[in-house]
Amino acid sequence: MLSKSQKDHYEYIHDDYGKHHYDQSSMAYRDRFIYKVILDGMDLNGKDVAELAAGSGSSSLELKRRYPQVRLTGFDISSKAVKQYKEDVGTSAFQQDLTKPMKQEFEFDVVMVFGGLHHCANDLGGVFQNISRILKPGGMLFMWEPNQECFLECLRKIWYRKSRFFQEDTEKDLVHDDISNMASSFFEVKDLKYMGGHIFLYLIV
What we know:
By secondary structure, this protein is α/β, with parallel strands linked by helices. The chain has one domain (2-29, 46-204): Vaccinia Virus protein VP39 (Rossmann fold), CATH 3.40.50. Helices cover 40% and strands 23% of the residues.
């Protein structure tokens, strides 16, 4: 029931969510403070890359711009997002609740999640298990998520509670120590950075 509720929620707000989260200013912020930091020194050309909680594919389009030979696949809980991802990015995309086992078999060199795991806060363990199954041995997971230990956390809680774009009962900001401990059964942490109110984790399977 939770999965269906969350799916319906993100399909309902799909158009407005895109306008507010992937506008020109938001993408400029992502370019400067996310992509340049996470992708520094990376060459993803020729790599099979999955973007989880991909939405309509704005971040995948950025990867495609940086790495013309990257092979992208998107995953999102919203059927509307999956449809738009296929149209905009021009590659495969699958409707997927990240907390549920994936029906298809995949092997990716890299999995990326840009602010998507905090939407799966009720079963992060299941998400990490899913990710470990679709990554090749030696594959990399890059995560960028809201940081619960930020001094502005109290304001963010109010924002989450008031904004119609969030489901307060299914998402919350994350703590890097908790993530690292939870993921340690599947991954080795290679890098950790604090980025304002967010954290970046680079893990290898």
